[in-house]
Amino acid sequence: MPGLIPPPNGLICPADRIFDRARVRSALAQACKDAGAGAETELRRAVVKILSQARKDGMAAIAEGFEQHPFDARGATRAYTWLTDCLIGCTFTLATTHLHPLSNPTQGERLSLLAVGGYGRGEMAPFSDVDLLFLTPYKITAWAESVIESMLYILWDLRLKVGHASRTVKDCLRLGAEDYTIRTALLEHRFLVGDAPLAEELQGTLRADLFKGSERDFIEAKLHEREQRHLKQGERYVVEPNVKEGKGGLRDLQSLFWIAKYVHDVSDSADLVKLGVFTEDEFATFQKAENFLWAVRCHLHLASRRANEQLSFDMQVQVAERMGYSDREGRRAVEHFMQDYFRQATRVGDLTRIFLTKLEADHTKAEPLLERIFKRRPRVKEGYKVVNNRLAIRDDRSFLKDPVNILRLFEEGLRTGMLIHPDAMRLVTANLRLIDDDIRADKEAASIFLGLLLKHGNPERALRRMNELGVLSAFIPEFEPIVAMMQFNMYHAYTVDEHTIQVISNFNQIERGELEEELPVSSEVLRSGLNRKVLMVAMLCHDIGKGRDIDHSVLGAQISRTVAPRLGLTKSECDTVEWLVRYHLLMSDMAQKRDIADPRTIRDFAKAVGSVKRLDLLLLLTVCDIRGVGPDTWNNWKAVLLRSLYRQTRVALEEGLEALSREVRGTEAKKNLRAALPDWTNGDLKRETTRHYDPYWQGLHVTAHVVFANLLREIGEDEVRIDLHPDDDRDATRACFAMSDHPGIFSRVCGALALVGANIVDARTFTSKDGFATAAFWIQDSEGKPYEAGKLKRLEQMIQKILKGEVITRDAIQTRDKFKKREKAFRVPTTISFDNEGSEIYTIIEVDTRDRPGLLFDLTRTMANMNIYIASAVIATYGEQVVDAFYVKDMFGLKFHAGSKQKTIERKLREAITQGVERANA
Predict the structure, then answer these.
(1) Could you point out which of 137, 166, 367, 583 has its C-alpha 20 to 30 Å from the C-alpha of 871?
(2) What pLDDT digit, counting tens, does each position of 689-715 carry?
């Protein structure tokens, strides 16, 4: 029967398995015969049943073929398109010959059906939209209206997501002139069935009356659209990318083809080589990237069972498995898959940038004459020229005679502030082989590279372009493994190479004075003078060891021994770089995982650092590293911890450890409390200052001492007093509790806070000499922010009810203890360690595991049941991973030294963690 469109070449499985034309033809003919004349509803129901089964069989056949050939995206997209063509062709034929037949159609009752948009291009994923254009010569007739209505009802019943428009040729011209989205859809129209001459008329009219002469406007519109899309999706390569709309995604490739088709009237991307737009190698890169991205998109649709374009964490694992990736070299399959994804996305960025900026240059509107006369143009060095305000190479052959010129190109770009011309970028990428061991050992090349980092005030721009073009990896081969490397966790927002560039960018912002208010200590340290060269090379190398089955800090330090001397650093500078890379996490770990109110913490850290010079360098590296993790990672809480650690350590290094002794701290704290309570009598002050043990005075600020003094004043034995107060300096709400001391008090408070949805970021508990417990918790809401002041009273009432036993915490918390769907894919091994050296008084139990609601309650309840006294807990969260450090002692006030006891505690804690994970996954 008419309407069964012939299959294209290169389908992923035999055409008859996708759509058995003979069987469907026979079944539809029988349905028409059985229904008889005028039985439209009955016929439509029968047709939907036949075509639904055909669609189901076809989709299953394509999915099976795709499973066997998971990288054959072209075969899959053509198969989905042809299946859709067949369904629509059958529907059109039935609507025009059986449901609404015309024995003698007039000239105005012609109807042409066209596919537009992605469907028109012939590229469809499993759940892509089906965009149709019903074309009529004049105003739509009653017959055409009936045909369209019947078709749409059938297609909707087939569960196709149909987007449609009914227009004349004139309508298409008028609407296309007003709206670039419509114009782009029309650009990719494809005739399906119906009146062919009418479709041909549209094709000729569009080219002559709409496209011709408007190329420049179309290019500018597409470039603006691309820019807005990147801003919305995330300008950098984010770790949960949108395959269709994100940077380096399919839409970027499609924009490239749209412009080529609009300007050059090409019908196939291969024509871009004939036109000289791409070289053969570039076109091969284009095809490889396009095929990979389409394969990812199709697998993503099939795994999600819907039109999902977001590669969320849970989907990344499934798509990696579907595409045949496996765990190897100490990294998960999903990490290998995502590194390939980001490398392809980067190549898409290279191609589209070169192509679009070249077209932009060819079609950009000229500047007004007065601007051209008076505009100051940068003077470029010999061997360069300015083309359309971009830095270009005057003579390719002369340029390539000295490979160091490749680095000089980026230096000149930074010096002049100009963007590099696409032809120059193309020349560089085609000749990366010139950067060999001789160039890497060349002193001038090393000097130029360091100059890019240190001299021009904007190293980020040069590094990012060098990285995208492959120059950075060519000059520093040790950097290549981390290019586009994704870390499969919720903590890092960028790939490893992008994170490294962000770290250097953060340092540059501090250097320019842009973060003076936000980072006063770092800004002051930088002004006082430090070795910028050492710091910059350490930043470049700090994560260079990632992705291998060895501690990246250790491996990175080893790699820096090779990289730093090659860049011309002295022996002393190389030693410092190596130390910084090896211990680049030390300051962050000490600040976030240890109690910095404990003098032993400061003493151990000061010993490890050894000098103020290294402390200054480590502070800058730590701050820039944390800020480079993601846009929301840095906060006041981390700032306060790092400032306090830095200042105390500096005092210890300059004045000696005695300046930080417990006695000195305690005396100072009591003096501050007396000053803060001028209305109290001497007797009351004496009672307050003598009722607490030494750790209480070291572990809290005077503001908390004042709060506890008021909470404890005339407190009853059965009373629970609570004070909730915003702590803006720490981006948290401080929750202070005072009550009679008893075993498990820490766990009870943790449970109460978990039930009200509070996220605990730090905690301290102390026991007074007269039998009361004082507990200070710093909490945040579910969005990681302090609670609004207006909600604190209600929060306090809820906590009071729980602490009074009106709610059974253990039972209630189990209904809330669930992982979100996208978080279930993460694996975090549990590590439990015991440290008896990090504190003079306590054993530090460090639990490194998968974060989840209720975890802290489970851990503290387990310890309480074992008669373990918890003095404080320091909580450090890294996305889905959490490190909880508990300062504990036994019921006799002693540390846990016995190995057997430590093993018992570890076993019980692991059991609690395992049971909690099972609940969270249920």
Answers:
(1) 583
(2) 888 887 888 777 888 899 999 999 888
Residues 184 and 330 in one domain: no
Q: Please say which residue of 610, 639, 655 terminates a domain.
A: 655
| pLDDT band at residue 362 using 50, 70 and 90 as cut-offs | low
Cα first-last separation, the chain: 53
Q: Which of 363, 386, 414 is the last residue of a domain?
A: 363
Mapped onto helix, strand or coil, the DSSP state of residue 764 is strand
- CA neighbours within 13 Å on the CB side: how many for 136? 18
Say yes or no: 286 and 171 in one domain: no
The interaxial angle of helices 443-454 and 405-416, nearest 10 deg, is: 20
**Model confidence at 822, in pLDDT bands (50, 70, 90)?**
low
- Report yes or no on whether pTM surpasses 0.90: no
Decide if 357 is inside a domain.
yes
238 in the same domain as 146: no
Domain assignment of residue 205, given as a range = 15-212
C-alpha to C-alpha distances, 508 to 185, 278, 369, nearest whole angstrom: 44, 36, 38
For residues 325-347, give the mean pLDDT: 91
Q: Select, from the ranges 203-217, 295-309, 325-339, 693-707, the one with the highest average predicted confidence (pLDDT).
A: 295-309
Please write down the long-range contacts of 744-749, taking CB distance under 8 Å and 24 or more positions apart.
744/860, 744/861, 744/864, 744/865, 745/773, 745/775, 746/775, 746/860, 746/864, 746/870, 746/873, 747/857, 747/860, 747/861, 747/863, 747/864, 747/870, 748/803, 748/809, 749/775, 749/777, 749/803
Alpha carbon distance 541, 536 (integer Å): 9
DSSP string, 346-398: HHHHHHHHHHHHHHHHHHPPPPPHHHHHH---PPPPTTEEEETTEEEES-HHH
Residues 238, 315, single domain; the answer is yes
Tell me how many domains the chain contains: 4
Q: Is residue 386 included in any domain, yes or no? A: no
Mean pLDDT of the chain: 88
Query: Sign (positive/negative) of CA torsion 88, 90, 93, 94?
Result: negative
Q: Percentage of the chain surpassing pLDDT 70?
A: 93
Question: How many residues belong to the chain?
Answer: 922
Q: What is the CATH number of the domain that holds 901?
A: 3.30.70.260
Cα distance between residue 9 and residue 15, in whole Å: 9
- 210: helix, coil or strand? helix
| Model confidence pLDDT, tens digit, residues 150-160 | 999 999 999 99
User: Cβ(111)–Cβ(135) under 8 Å?
Assistant: yes
68 and 164 housed in the same domain: yes
CATH number of the CATH domain containing 251: 1.20.120.330
Could you report the per-residue pLDDT of 193-220, keeping only the tens digit for each? 999 999 999 998 998 899 888 888 888 8
169 in the same domain as 31: yes
Residue 802 belongs to a domain: no
- Domain co-membership, 154 together with 282: no
CATH number at residue 177: 3.30.460.10
565 within a domain of the structure (yes/no): yes
* Sheet order of strands, 720-727 included: 720-727, 732-740, 772-780, 759-767, 869-878, 881-889, 843-850, 831-835
CB 245 within 8 A of CB 345: no
pLDDT digits (tens, 9 = 90+) for 892-915: 889 999 999 999 999 999 999 888
